[in-house]
Protein backbone atom coordinates (compact mmCIF):
# COMPACT_ATOMS: atom_id res chain seq x y z
CA UNK A 1 0.00 0.00 0.00
CA UNK A 2 1.44 3.47 -0.92
CA UNK A 3 0.58 6.19 1.63
CA UNK A 4 -0.56 9.54 0.30
CA UNK A 5 2.20 11.30 2.25
CA UNK A 6 5.72 9.96 1.96
CA UNK A 7 7.00 8.52 5.22
CA UNK A 8 10.61 9.20 4.26
CA UNK A 9 11.23 11.79 6.96
CA UNK A 10 9.96 9.53 9.71
CA UNK A 11 11.69 6.43 8.33
CA UNK A 12 14.60 6.89 10.77
CA UNK A 13 12.24 6.06 13.63
CA UNK A 14 10.56 3.27 11.73
CA UNK A 15 13.95 1.69 11.00
CA UNK A 16 14.49 1.39 14.73
CA UNK A 17 11.78 -1.26 14.75
CA UNK A 18 12.88 -4.90 14.63
CA UNK A 19 13.14 -6.45 11.16
CA UNK A 20 10.21 -8.45 9.85
CA UNK A 21 9.91 -11.89 11.42
CA UNK A 22 8.61 -13.31 8.12
CA UNK A 23 10.75 -16.32 6.99
CA UNK A 24 12.72 -16.18 3.73
CA UNK A 25 11.91 -18.47 0.76
CA UNK A 26 15.00 -20.59 1.51
CA UNK A 27 13.88 -20.96 5.15
CA UNK A 28 10.45 -21.94 3.97
CA UNK A 29 11.83 -24.48 1.47
CA UNK A 30 14.01 -26.03 4.17
CA UNK A 31 11.10 -26.15 6.58
CA UNK A 32 8.88 -27.64 3.89
CA UNK A 33 11.44 -30.35 3.06
CA UNK A 34 11.93 -31.13 6.76
CA UNK A 35 8.20 -31.28 7.42
CA UNK A 36 7.72 -33.41 4.28
CA UNK A 37 10.32 -35.90 5.56
CA UNK A 38 8.84 -35.74 9.06
CA UNK A 39 5.37 -36.29 7.60
CA UNK A 40 6.31 -39.19 5.33
CA UNK A 41 8.32 -41.10 7.97
CA UNK A 42 5.37 -42.07 10.19
CA UNK A 43 3.41 -43.16 7.10
CA UNK A 44 6.28 -45.39 5.93
CA UNK A 45 6.68 -46.80 9.46
CA UNK A 46 2.95 -47.36 9.66
CA UNK A 47 2.84 -49.16 6.32
CA UNK A 48 5.81 -51.34 7.29
CA UNK A 49 4.12 -52.17 10.59
CA UNK A 50 0.87 -53.03 8.85
CA UNK A 51 2.59 -55.27 6.30
CA UNK A 52 4.49 -57.02 9.13
CA UNK A 53 1.25 -57.47 11.08
CA UNK A 54 -0.56 -58.77 7.99
CA UNK A 55 2.23 -61.33 7.33
CA UNK A 56 2.22 -62.43 10.99
CA UNK A 57 -1.55 -62.65 10.95
CA UNK A 58 -1.44 -64.76 7.80
CA UNK A 59 1.03 -67.15 9.42
CA UNK A 60 -0.90 -67.30 12.65
CA UNK A 61 -4.09 -68.04 10.80
CA UNK A 62 -2.32 -70.89 8.92
CA UNK A 63 -1.15 -72.33 12.23
CA UNK A 64 -4.57 -71.90 13.80
CA UNK A 65 -6.14 -73.61 10.77
CA UNK A 66 -3.76 -76.57 11.07
CA UNK A 67 -4.48 -76.82 14.81
CA UNK A 68 -8.21 -76.72 14.04
CA UNK A 69 -7.79 -79.45 11.41
CA UNK A 70 -5.94 -81.63 13.99
CA UNK A 71 -8.63 -80.96 16.56
CA UNK A 72 -11.44 -81.92 14.19
CA UNK A 73 -9.55 -85.03 13.06
CA UNK A 74 -9.00 -86.02 16.69
CA UNK A 75 -12.68 -85.46 17.44
CA UNK A 76 -13.57 -87.66 14.50
CA UNK A 77 -11.14 -90.42 15.54
CA UNK A 78 -12.26 -90.22 19.12
CA UNK A 79 -15.95 -90.45 18.19
CA UNK A 80 -15.48 -93.35 15.79
CA UNK A 81 -13.41 -95.22 18.39
CA UNK A 82 -16.10 -94.52 21.00
CA UNK A 83 -18.75 -95.93 18.66
CA UNK A 84 -16.80 -99.08 17.79
CA UNK A 85 -15.86 -99.62 21.45
CA UNK A 86 -19.51 -99.38 22.53
CA UNK A 87 -20.60 -101.97 19.92
CA UNK A 88 -17.65 -104.23 20.76
CA UNK A 89 -18.42 -103.93 24.46
CA UNK A 90 -22.04 -104.98 23.96
CA UNK A 91 -21.22 -107.91 21.66
CA UNK A 92 -18.44 -109.11 23.94
CA UNK A 93 -20.94 -108.81 26.81
CA UNK A 94 -23.24 -111.29 25.01
CA UNK A 95 -20.30 -113.63 24.29
CA UNK A 96 -19.08 -113.56 27.87
CA UNK A 97 -22.56 -114.09 29.24
CA UNK A 98 -23.03 -117.26 27.17
CA UNK A 99 -19.47 -118.56 27.34
CA UNK A 100 -19.66 -121.70 29.50
CA UNK A 101 -16.82 -123.88 30.83
CA UNK A 102 -16.55 -127.30 29.21
CA UNK A 103 -18.51 -129.99 31.11
CA UNK A 104 -18.11 -133.75 30.66
CA UNK A 105 -21.69 -134.27 29.62
CA UNK A 106 -23.21 -132.39 26.66
CA UNK A 107 -26.49 -132.26 28.59
CA UNK A 108 -24.72 -130.34 31.36
CA UNK A 109 -23.28 -127.99 28.78
CA UNK A 110 -26.78 -127.34 27.42
CA UNK A 111 -28.12 -126.91 30.96
CA UNK A 112 -25.44 -124.34 31.72
CA UNK A 113 -26.23 -122.51 28.50
CA UNK A 114 -29.88 -122.30 29.50
CA UNK A 115 -28.89 -120.88 32.89
CA UNK A 116 -26.54 -118.31 31.41
CA UNK A 117 -28.93 -117.29 28.65
CA UNK A 118 -31.79 -116.84 31.16
CA UNK A 119 -29.54 -114.84 33.51
CA UNK A 120 -28.32 -112.60 30.68
CA UNK A 121 -31.87 -111.90 29.50
CA UNK A 122 -32.80 -110.92 33.04
CA UNK A 123 -29.97 -108.53 33.71
CA UNK A 124 -28.98 -107.19 30.30
CA UNK A 125 -30.47 -103.95 29.14
CA UNK A 126 -29.99 -105.11 25.57
CA UNK A 127 -31.95 -108.40 25.73
CA UNK A 128 -34.40 -107.19 23.04
CA UNK A 129 -31.53 -107.32 20.55
CA UNK A 130 -31.31 -111.12 20.61
CA UNK A 131 -34.21 -112.72 18.79
CA UNK A 132 -33.37 -116.42 19.21
CA UNK A 133 -30.61 -118.73 20.34
CA UNK A 134 -30.15 -122.03 18.43
CA UNK A 135 -28.00 -125.08 18.89
CA UNK A 136 -26.82 -126.98 15.86
CA UNK A 137 -25.64 -130.33 17.26
CA UNK A 138 -22.81 -131.85 15.23
CA UNK A 139 -23.31 -135.41 16.39
CA UNK A 140 -26.63 -135.81 14.60
CA UNK A 141 -27.77 -134.85 11.13
CA UNK A 142 -26.62 -131.35 10.25
CA UNK A 143 -30.13 -130.60 9.04
CA UNK A 144 -31.47 -130.46 12.61
CA UNK A 145 -31.55 -127.20 14.42
CA UNK A 146 -32.66 -126.83 18.03
CA UNK A 147 -34.13 -123.62 19.38
CA UNK A 148 -33.65 -122.61 23.03
CA UNK A 149 -37.11 -122.41 24.57
CA UNK A 150 -36.48 -120.46 27.74
CA UNK A 151 -40.02 -120.76 29.14
CA UNK A 152 -40.10 -124.56 28.90
CA UNK A 153 -36.30 -124.95 29.24
CA UNK A 154 -36.34 -127.29 26.24
CA UNK A 155 -34.46 -127.42 22.98
CA UNK A 156 -37.18 -127.45 20.35
CA UNK A 157 -36.46 -128.63 16.80
CA UNK A 158 -36.79 -125.62 14.51
CA UNK A 159 -36.68 -125.04 10.77
CA UNK A 160 -33.55 -123.34 9.49
CA UNK A 161 -34.14 -119.58 9.25
CA UNK A 162 -33.17 -118.29 5.78
CA UNK A 163 -30.69 -115.85 7.32
CA UNK A 164 -28.75 -118.68 9.00
CA UNK A 165 -28.38 -120.96 5.98
CA UNK A 166 -25.42 -119.17 4.38
CA UNK A 167 -23.57 -119.58 7.68
CA UNK A 168 -23.48 -123.37 7.41
CA UNK A 169 -21.48 -123.04 4.17
CA UNK A 170 -18.81 -120.84 5.75
CA UNK A 171 -15.91 -121.94 7.92
CA UNK A 172 -17.14 -121.74 11.52
CA UNK A 173 -14.97 -121.13 14.59
CA UNK A 174 -13.63 -124.29 16.21
CA UNK A 175 -11.75 -123.11 19.27
CA UNK A 176 -13.40 -123.34 22.65
CA UNK A 177 -13.35 -119.60 23.39
CA UNK A 178 -13.85 -118.44 19.86
CA UNK A 179 -16.86 -116.41 18.75
CA UNK A 180 -17.63 -115.23 15.25
CA UNK A 181 -19.67 -112.08 14.57
CA UNK A 182 -21.56 -112.48 11.33
CA UNK A 183 -23.04 -109.13 10.39
CA UNK A 184 -24.98 -110.38 7.36
CA UNK A 185 -27.33 -112.48 9.55
CA UNK A 186 -26.66 -110.79 12.06
CA UNK A 187 -25.61 -113.46 14.55
CA UNK A 188 -22.87 -114.61 16.90
CA UNK A 189 -21.61 -118.14 16.30
CA UNK A 190 -19.74 -120.17 18.92
CA UNK A 191 -18.60 -123.84 19.10
CA UNK A 192 -19.83 -125.79 22.15
CA UNK A 193 -17.45 -128.49 23.43
CA UNK A 194 -17.97 -131.34 25.89
CA UNK A 195 -15.10 -133.30 27.50
CA UNK A 196 -16.79 -136.73 27.48
CA UNK A 197 -16.91 -139.22 30.32
CA UNK A 198 -13.48 -140.84 30.13
CA UNK A 199 -10.80 -139.08 32.18
CA UNK A 200 -8.31 -138.45 29.42
CA UNK A 201 -10.82 -137.80 26.65
CA UNK A 202 -10.15 -134.73 24.54
CA UNK A 203 -12.85 -132.05 24.31
CA UNK A 204 -15.26 -132.96 21.55
CA UNK A 205 -17.23 -130.46 19.41
CA UNK A 206 -20.77 -130.98 20.54
CA UNK A 207 -22.43 -128.36 18.33
CA UNK A 208 -22.63 -124.74 17.31
CA UNK A 209 -24.46 -122.04 19.17
CA UNK A 210 -26.17 -119.39 17.02
CA UNK A 211 -27.18 -116.19 18.81
CA UNK A 212 -29.41 -114.56 16.21
CA UNK A 213 -29.98 -110.80 16.54
CA UNK A 214 -33.17 -108.97 15.70
CA UNK A 215 -31.95 -107.30 12.51
CA UNK A 216 -34.62 -104.58 12.56
CA UNK A 217 -34.16 -103.35 16.13
CA UNK A 218 -30.36 -103.71 15.78
CA UNK A 219 -30.40 -101.47 12.71
CA UNK A 220 -33.23 -99.08 13.56
CA UNK A 221 -32.68 -98.54 17.28
CA UNK A 222 -29.44 -99.93 18.64
CA UNK A 223 -26.94 -98.67 16.02
CA UNK A 224 -28.51 -95.16 15.69
CA UNK A 225 -28.45 -94.88 19.51
CA UNK A 226 -24.77 -95.73 19.67
CA UNK A 227 -23.91 -93.44 16.75
CA UNK A 228 -25.82 -90.51 18.27
CA UNK A 229 -23.99 -91.00 21.58
CA UNK A 230 -20.63 -91.05 19.82
CA UNK A 231 -21.38 -88.11 17.49
CA UNK A 232 -23.35 -85.56 19.50
CA UNK A 233 -24.59 -82.60 17.39
CA UNK A 234 -22.24 -80.33 19.33
CA UNK A 235 -19.06 -81.82 17.85
CA UNK A 236 -19.91 -80.50 14.40
CA UNK A 237 -20.21 -83.81 12.55
CA UNK A 238 -23.21 -85.43 10.85
CA UNK A 239 -23.39 -89.14 10.02
CA UNK A 240 -25.20 -91.73 7.96
CA UNK A 241 -25.68 -95.40 8.89
CA UNK A 242 -25.04 -97.37 5.70
CA UNK A 243 -26.28 -100.90 5.01
CA UNK A 244 -24.62 -102.96 2.29
CA UNK A 245 -26.45 -106.23 2.90
CA UNK A 246 -27.85 -106.64 -0.59
CA UNK A 247 -27.32 -103.71 -2.94
CA UNK A 248 -23.97 -102.93 -4.55
CA UNK A 249 -24.32 -99.38 -3.42
CA UNK A 250 -24.75 -98.93 0.34
CA UNK A 251 -28.18 -97.60 1.26
CA UNK A 252 -28.69 -95.00 3.99
CA UNK A 253 -30.77 -96.62 6.73
CA UNK A 254 -30.42 -93.82 9.25
CA UNK A 255 -29.14 -90.20 9.15
CA UNK A 256 -28.31 -87.93 12.04
CA UNK A 257 -30.59 -85.06 10.99
CA UNK A 258 -33.10 -83.96 8.39
CA UNK A 259 -30.48 -81.77 6.72
CA UNK A 260 -28.34 -84.84 5.97
CA UNK A 261 -28.88 -86.20 2.43
CA UNK A 262 -30.65 -89.54 1.88
CA UNK A 263 -27.94 -90.71 -0.54
CA UNK A 264 -24.55 -91.81 0.72
CA UNK A 265 -22.11 -88.87 1.05
CA UNK A 266 -19.99 -88.69 -2.14
CA UNK A 267 -16.98 -87.41 -0.17
CA UNK A 268 -17.28 -88.33 3.50
CA UNK A 269 -14.54 -87.37 5.96
CA UNK A 270 -14.49 -90.98 7.24
CA UNK A 271 -16.28 -94.29 6.74
CA UNK A 272 -15.72 -96.99 9.34
CA UNK A 273 -17.20 -100.43 10.12
CA UNK A 274 -19.07 -101.36 13.30
CA UNK A 275 -16.16 -103.29 14.69
CA UNK A 276 -12.48 -102.97 14.36
CA UNK A 277 -9.66 -105.14 15.66
CA UNK A 278 -8.33 -102.48 18.04
CA UNK A 279 -11.79 -101.86 19.53
CA UNK A 280 -12.27 -105.60 20.00
CA UNK A 281 -8.94 -106.01 21.75
CA UNK A 282 -9.49 -103.03 24.01
CA UNK A 283 -13.15 -102.06 24.32
CA UNK A 284 -13.05 -99.13 26.73
CA UNK A 285 -16.10 -98.25 28.80
CA UNK A 286 -17.85 -98.98 32.07
CA UNK A 287 -18.57 -102.67 31.47
CA UNK A 288 -15.43 -103.45 29.46
CA UNK A 289 -13.88 -105.46 32.25
CA UNK A 290 -17.09 -106.44 33.97
CA UNK A 291 -16.44 -110.10 33.24
CA UNK A 292 -13.11 -111.78 33.33
CA UNK A 293 -14.26 -114.62 31.04
CA UNK A 294 -11.76 -114.60 28.18
CA UNK A 295 -13.37 -114.68 24.74
CA UNK A 296 -12.01 -114.19 21.27
CA UNK A 297 -14.37 -112.43 18.90
CA UNK A 298 -13.58 -112.36 15.23
CA UNK A 299 -15.53 -110.49 12.59
CA UNK A 300 -16.98 -111.87 9.39
CA UNK A 301 -17.86 -109.86 6.29
CA UNK A 302 -19.15 -106.44 7.30
CA UNK A 303 -22.59 -105.11 6.44
CA UNK A 304 -23.09 -101.84 8.27
CA UNK A 305 -20.80 -98.85 8.28
CA UNK A 306 -20.94 -95.26 9.48
CA UNK A 307 -20.11 -92.42 7.07
CA UNK A 308 -19.20 -89.16 8.79
CA UNK A 309 -18.90 -85.67 7.36
CA UNK A 310 -18.36 -82.27 8.92
CA UNK A 311 -21.46 -80.08 8.94
CA UNK A 312 -19.63 -77.52 6.75
CA UNK A 313 -19.27 -80.14 3.95
CA UNK A 314 -15.95 -81.59 5.01
CA UNK A 315 -13.17 -81.05 7.52
CA UNK A 316 -11.26 -79.17 4.80
CA UNK A 317 -14.22 -76.90 4.10
CA UNK A 318 -14.68 -76.24 7.85
CA UNK A 319 -10.99 -75.36 8.22
CA UNK A 320 -11.05 -73.17 5.11
CA UNK A 321 -14.14 -71.30 6.34
CA UNK A 322 -12.56 -70.81 9.78
CA UNK A 323 -9.46 -69.46 8.10
CA UNK A 324 -11.48 -67.15 5.90
CA UNK A 325 -13.36 -65.87 8.95
CA UNK A 326 -10.14 -65.39 10.92
CA UNK A 327 -8.49 -63.55 8.06
CA UNK A 328 -11.56 -61.36 7.46
CA UNK A 329 -11.68 -60.38 11.13
CA UNK A 330 -7.92 -59.76 11.23
CA UNK A 331 -7.99 -57.70 8.05
CA UNK A 332 -10.96 -55.75 9.43
CA UNK A 333 -9.11 -55.07 12.68
CA UNK A 334 -5.98 -54.08 10.77
CA UNK A 335 -8.02 -51.75 8.57
CA UNK A 336 -9.67 -50.12 11.57
CA UNK A 337 -6.24 -49.82 13.15
CA UNK A 338 -4.81 -48.28 9.98
CA UNK A 339 -7.73 -45.88 9.54
CA UNK A 340 -7.47 -44.78 13.18
CA UNK A 341 -3.73 -44.25 12.88
CA UNK A 342 -4.10 -42.35 9.62
CA UNK A 343 -6.83 -40.22 11.17
CA UNK A 344 -4.60 -39.46 14.15
CA UNK A 345 -1.72 -38.74 11.77
CA UNK A 346 -3.81 -36.36 9.68
CA UNK A 347 -5.24 -34.69 12.79
CA UNK A 348 -1.74 -34.29 14.21
CA UNK A 349 -0.46 -32.82 10.96
CA UNK A 350 -3.41 -30.44 10.84
CA UNK A 351 -2.84 -29.43 14.44
CA UNK A 352 0.88 -28.90 13.71
CA UNK A 353 0.06 -26.84 10.65
CA UNK A 354 -2.46 -24.75 12.56
CA UNK A 355 0.02 -24.24 15.38
CA UNK A 356 2.65 -23.14 12.86
CA UNK A 357 0.17 -20.81 11.15
CA UNK A 358 -0.81 -19.37 14.52
CA UNK A 359 2.84 -18.74 15.35
CA UNK A 360 3.30 -17.05 12.00
CA UNK A 361 0.10 -15.14 12.63
CA UNK A 362 1.27 -13.98 16.06
CA UNK A 363 4.59 -12.74 14.71
CA UNK A 364 2.95 -11.32 11.57
CA UNK A 365 0.23 -9.49 13.50
CA UNK A 366 2.66 -7.99 15.99
CA UNK A 367 4.73 -6.76 13.08
CA UNK A 368 1.63 -5.47 11.28
CA UNK A 369 0.47 -3.66 14.41
CA UNK A 370 3.84 -2.15 15.12
CA UNK A 371 4.29 -0.66 11.65
CA UNK A 372 1.22 1.66 11.65
CA UNK A 373 1.81 2.34 15.33
CA UNK A 374 5.34 3.49 14.56
CA UNK A 375 4.08 5.73 11.74
CA UNK A 376 1.39 7.22 14.00
CA UNK A 377 3.81 7.77 16.90
CA UNK A 378 6.48 9.35 14.73
CA UNK A 379 4.02 11.62 12.90
CA UNK A 380 2.39 12.66 16.17
CA UNK A 381 5.82 13.29 17.73
CA UNK A 382 6.91 15.41 14.74
CA UNK A 383 3.71 17.44 15.06
CA UNK A 384 4.08 17.79 18.82
CA UNK A 385 7.74 18.82 18.54
CA UNK A 386 6.85 21.46 15.95
CA UNK A 387 9.02 19.79 13.30
CA UNK A 388 6.10 20.24 10.86
CA UNK A 389 4.50 23.65 10.88
CA UNK A 390 3.27 24.30 7.35
CA UNK A 391 -0.51 24.04 7.22
CA UNK A 392 -0.72 21.71 4.20
CA UNK A 393 1.93 19.39 5.74
CA UNK A 394 0.04 19.38 9.04
CA UNK A 395 -3.09 18.33 7.13
CA UNK A 396 -1.16 15.59 5.33
CA UNK A 397 0.20 14.36 8.66
CA UNK A 398 -3.34 14.38 10.08
CA UNK A 399 -4.70 12.31 7.18
CA UNK A 400 -1.73 9.91 7.45
CA UNK A 401 -2.39 9.39 11.17
CA UNK A 402 -6.08 8.90 10.37
CA UNK A 403 -5.33 6.35 7.59
CA UNK A 404 -2.87 4.35 9.66
CA UNK A 405 -5.29 4.45 12.61
CA UNK A 406 -8.04 3.12 10.35
CA UNK A 407 -5.77 0.34 9.13
CA UNK A 408 -4.92 -0.49 12.71
CA UNK A 409 -8.56 -0.59 13.76
CA UNK A 410 -9.43 -2.67 10.63
CA UNK A 411 -6.80 -5.20 11.65
CA UNK A 412 -8.05 -5.32 15.23
CA UNK A 413 -11.61 -5.69 13.85
CA UNK A 414 -10.47 -8.71 11.80
CA UNK A 415 -9.00 -10.37 14.86
CA UNK A 416 -12.05 -9.60 17.00
CA UNK A 417 -14.41 -10.82 14.25
CA UNK A 418 -12.43 -14.01 13.94
CA UNK A 419 -12.58 -14.56 17.70
CA UNK A 420 -16.31 -13.74 17.72
CA UNK A 421 -17.03 -16.16 14.86
CA UNK A 422 -15.25 -18.93 16.73
CA UNK A 423 -17.00 -18.24 20.01
CA UNK A 424 -20.43 -18.06 18.28
CA UNK A 425 -20.83 -14.61 19.79
CA UNK A 426 -21.93 -13.02 16.53
CA UNK A 427 -25.61 -12.57 15.87
CA UNK A 428 -26.55 -11.62 12.33
CA UNK A 429 -29.75 -9.80 11.63
CA UNK A 430 -31.07 -10.71 8.18
CA UNK A 431 -33.09 -8.02 6.47
CA UNK A 432 -34.02 -7.21 2.85
CA UNK A 433 -31.16 -5.10 1.49
CA UNK A 434 -30.70 -3.62 -2.00
CA UNK A 435 -27.55 -4.91 -3.75
CA UNK A 436 -26.45 -1.44 -4.81
CA UNK A 437 -26.55 -0.23 -1.22
CA UNK A 438 -24.10 -2.91 -0.03
CA UNK A 439 -21.76 -2.44 -2.99
CA UNK A 440 -21.94 1.34 -2.69
CA UNK A 441 -21.04 1.27 1.02
CA UNK A 442 -18.13 -1.16 0.50
CA UNK A 443 -16.76 0.91 -2.39
CA UNK A 444 -17.04 4.13 -0.37
CA UNK A 445 -15.14 2.57 2.54
CA UNK A 446 -12.39 1.29 0.23
CA UNK A 447 -11.99 4.42 -1.82
CA UNK A 448 -9.19 5.82 0.35
CA UNK A 449 -6.91 2.77 0.07
CA UNK A 450 -7.73 2.41 -3.63
CA UNK A 451 -6.76 6.02 -4.15
CA UNK A 452 -3.54 5.48 -2.18
CA UNK A 453 -2.58 2.59 -4.47
CA UNK A 454 -3.78 4.40 -7.58
CA UNK A 455 -6.40 1.76 -8.26
CA UNK A 456 -9.68 2.57 -10.04
CA UNK A 457 -12.82 0.91 -8.62
CA UNK A 458 -15.34 0.21 -11.41
CA UNK A 459 -18.85 -0.97 -10.52
CA UNK A 460 -21.56 -2.43 -12.68
CA UNK A 461 -24.83 -3.18 -10.85
CA UNK A 462 -28.06 -3.69 -12.84
CA UNK A 463 -31.00 -1.77 -11.39
CA UNK A 464 -33.50 -4.63 -11.55
CA UNK A 465 -31.76 -7.07 -9.23
CA UNK A 466 -33.89 -8.50 -6.44
CA UNK A 467 -33.19 -7.31 -2.89
CA UNK A 468 -30.83 -9.44 -0.82
CA UNK A 469 -31.84 -11.06 2.43
CA UNK A 470 -28.72 -10.49 4.44
CA UNK A 471 -26.96 -8.70 7.28
CA UNK A 472 -25.84 -5.56 5.45
CA UNK A 473 -22.90 -4.82 7.77
CA UNK A 474 -21.50 -8.36 7.56
CA UNK A 475 -21.88 -8.53 3.77
CA UNK A 476 -20.21 -5.12 3.43
CA UNK A 477 -17.31 -6.39 5.47
CA UNK A 478 -16.94 -9.48 3.27
CA UNK A 479 -16.98 -7.27 0.18
CA UNK A 480 -14.46 -4.89 1.71
CA UNK A 481 -12.13 -7.78 2.50
CA UNK A 482 -12.25 -8.84 -1.15
CA UNK A 483 -11.81 -5.28 -2.44
CA UNK A 484 -8.89 -4.65 -0.09
CA UNK A 485 -7.23 -7.94 -1.25
CA UNK A 486 -7.85 -7.01 -4.90
CA UNK A 487 -6.14 -3.66 -4.28
CA UNK A 488 -3.30 -5.21 -2.22
CA UNK A 489 -2.52 -8.11 -4.54
CA UNK A 490 -3.83 -6.87 -7.89
CA UNK A 491 -2.81 -3.22 -7.81
CA UNK A 492 -0.50 -3.79 -10.77
CA UNK A 493 -3.64 -4.01 -12.92
CA UNK A 494 -4.61 -0.43 -12.02
CA UNK A 495 -8.32 -1.24 -11.68
CA UNK A 496 -10.72 -3.48 -9.79
CA UNK A 497 -14.13 -4.41 -11.17
CA UNK A 498 -17.20 -4.94 -8.99
CA UNK A 499 -20.27 -6.42 -10.59
CA UNK A 500 -23.56 -8.02 -9.59
CA UNK A 501 -25.83 -10.37 -11.54
CA UNK A 502 -28.59 -12.93 -10.97
CA UNK A 503 -27.15 -16.36 -10.15
CA UNK A 504 -28.86 -17.99 -13.14
CA UNK A 505 -31.64 -20.53 -13.63
CA UNK A 506 -30.08 -23.15 -11.32
CA UNK A 507 -30.17 -20.78 -8.33
CA UNK A 508 -32.96 -18.28 -9.10
CA UNK A 509 -33.07 -17.14 -5.45
CA UNK A 510 -29.49 -15.93 -5.39
CA UNK A 511 -27.47 -12.97 -6.59
CA UNK A 512 -23.77 -13.05 -7.44
CA UNK A 513 -21.47 -10.19 -6.46
CA UNK A 514 -18.00 -10.38 -7.98
CA UNK A 515 -14.72 -8.60 -7.30
CA UNK A 516 -12.19 -8.95 -10.10
CA UNK A 517 -8.63 -7.72 -10.22
CA UNK A 518 -5.99 -7.84 -12.93
CA UNK A 519 -2.90 -8.60 -10.84
CA UNK A 520 -0.67 -11.65 -10.63
CA UNK A 521 -3.48 -14.04 -9.62
CA UNK A 522 -3.13 -16.85 -7.07
CA UNK A 523 -0.49 -19.57 -7.41
CA UNK A 524 -2.11 -23.01 -7.97
CA UNK A 525 -0.20 -24.32 -4.89
CA UNK A 526 -1.85 -21.68 -2.70
CA UNK A 527 -5.35 -21.99 -4.11
CA UNK A 528 -6.56 -24.93 -1.91
CA UNK A 529 -5.50 -23.16 1.29
CA UNK A 530 -6.32 -19.47 0.86
CA UNK A 531 -9.58 -19.82 2.85
CA UNK A 532 -7.80 -21.51 5.79
CA UNK A 533 -7.38 -19.30 8.87
CA UNK A 534 -3.92 -17.67 9.16
CA UNK A 535 -2.89 -18.89 5.71
CA UNK A 536 -0.85 -16.44 3.67
CA UNK A 537 0.13 -17.18 0.09
CA UNK A 538 3.80 -17.88 -0.62
CA UNK A 539 4.30 -14.64 -2.59
CA UNK A 540 2.45 -12.60 0.06
CA UNK A 541 4.76 -13.92 2.78
CA UNK A 542 7.92 -13.29 0.80
CA UNK A 543 6.84 -9.87 -0.46
CA UNK A 544 6.22 -6.91 1.79
CA UNK A 545 2.42 -7.13 1.40
CA UNK A 546 0.90 -6.85 4.84
CA UNK A 547 -1.82 -9.13 6.11
CA UNK A 548 -2.99 -11.46 8.84
CA UNK A 549 -4.20 -14.41 6.76
CA UNK A 550 -7.67 -14.00 8.28
CA UNK A 551 -9.55 -11.96 5.64
CA UNK A 552 -10.66 -14.79 3.33
CA UNK A 553 -11.25 -17.23 6.20
CA UNK A 554 -13.51 -14.65 7.84
CA UNK A 555 -15.26 -13.96 4.53
CA UNK A 556 -15.99 -17.63 3.96
CA UNK A 557 -17.30 -18.21 7.48
CA UNK A 558 -19.42 -15.07 7.42
CA UNK A 559 -20.89 -15.94 4.01
CA UNK A 560 -21.79 -19.41 5.24
CA UNK A 561 -23.41 -17.88 8.33
CA UNK A 562 -25.41 -15.60 5.99
CA UNK A 563 -26.62 -18.62 3.98
CA UNK A 564 -24.37 -17.91 0.97
CA UNK A 565 -20.88 -18.83 -0.11
CA UNK A 566 -17.70 -17.46 -1.64
CA UNK A 567 -15.83 -18.95 -4.59
CA UNK A 568 -12.69 -17.99 -6.46
CA UNK A 569 -11.52 -18.19 -10.05
CA UNK A 570 -7.90 -17.48 -10.69
CA UNK A 571 -5.63 -17.54 -13.71
CA UNK A 572 -2.03 -16.81 -12.74
CA UNK A 573 -0.69 -13.78 -14.54
CA UNK A 574 -4.08 -12.28 -15.45
CA UNK A 575 -5.66 -11.75 -12.00
CA UNK A 576 -8.47 -13.42 -10.13
CA UNK A 577 -12.15 -13.06 -9.34
CA UNK A 578 -13.86 -13.72 -6.01
CA UNK A 579 -17.60 -14.25 -6.22
CA UNK A 580 -20.08 -13.96 -3.36
CA UNK A 581 -23.32 -15.90 -3.74
CA UNK A 582 -25.99 -14.17 -1.62
CA UNK A 583 -29.61 -15.34 -0.95
CA UNK A 584 -32.33 -12.92 -2.04
CA UNK A 585 -35.49 -11.95 -0.16
CA UNK A 586 -37.46 -14.13 -2.64
CA UNK A 587 -35.86 -17.19 -1.04
CA UNK A 588 -37.75 -16.32 2.20
CA UNK A 589 -41.09 -14.81 1.20
CA UNK A 590 -42.18 -14.47 4.84
CA UNK A 591 -39.62 -11.65 5.25
CA UNK A 592 -40.98 -8.07 4.91
CA UNK A 593 -40.64 -6.41 1.50
CA UNK A 594 -37.49 -4.28 1.02
CA UNK A 595 -37.75 -0.65 1.90
CA UNK A 596 -35.89 0.42 -1.23
CA UNK A 597 -35.05 -1.49 -4.36
CA UNK A 598 -31.63 -1.48 -5.90
P1 LIG B 1 -4.04 -11.66 3.96
O1 LIG B 1 -4.47 -10.82 2.79
O2 LIG B 1 -4.05 -10.96 5.23
O3 LIG B 1 -2.76 -12.38 3.69
P2 LIG B 1 -6.35 -13.24 3.29
O4 LIG B 1 -7.05 -14.31 4.04
O5 LIG B 1 -7.19 -12.07 2.90
O6 LIG B 1 -5.11 -12.85 4.16
O7 LIG B 1 -5.78 -13.89 1.98
C1 LIG B 1 -5.08 -15.10 2.05
C2 LIG B 1 -4.10 -15.23 0.90
O8 LIG B 1 -4.80 -15.35 -0.34
C3 LIG B 1 -3.24 -14.02 0.73
O9 LIG B 1 -2.08 -14.10 1.57
C4 LIG B 1 -2.88 -14.10 -0.76
O10 LIG B 1 -1.78 -14.97 -0.95
C5 LIG B 1 -4.07 -14.75 -1.39
N1 LIG B 1 -4.97 -13.76 -2.04
C6 LIG B 1 -6.13 -13.25 -1.56
N2 LIG B 1 -6.70 -12.40 -2.44
C7 LIG B 1 -5.87 -12.35 -3.52
C8 LIG B 1 -5.90 -11.66 -4.77
N3 LIG B 1 -6.89 -10.83 -5.10
N4 LIG B 1 -4.87 -11.86 -5.63
C9 LIG B 1 -3.87 -12.71 -5.34
N5 LIG B 1 -3.78 -13.40 -4.16
C10 LIG B 1 -4.77 -13.22 -3.26
Walkthrough of the structure:
The chain is rod-shaped. With 598 residues, it is of the alpha+beta class. It has helices spanning 11-15, 25-98, 106-123, 165-168, 215-230, 277-281, 315-384, 391-422, 435-452, 472-490, 538-542, 551-561, and strands at residues 130-137, 146-149, 154-157, 178-182, 187-194, 204-213, 237-243, 251-255, 270-273, 296-299, 304-310, 431-433, 456-460, 468-470, 495-502, 510-517, 565-571, 575-583. The strands form four sheets. It has a seven-stranded mixed beta sheet with strand order 3-2-1-6-5-4-10, with helices on one face. It binds adenosine-5'-diphosphate. Residues 485-486, 489-490, 517, 519, 521-522, 526, 530, 535-537, 540, 547-553, 576 line the site of adenosine-5'-diphosphate (ADP).
Q: Can you give keywords for this protein?
A:
598 residues; 12 helices; rod-shaped; 46% helix; disordered N terminus; seven-stranded mixed beta sheet; binds adenosine-5'-diphosphate; five-stranded mixed beta sheet; disordered C terminus; alpha+beta
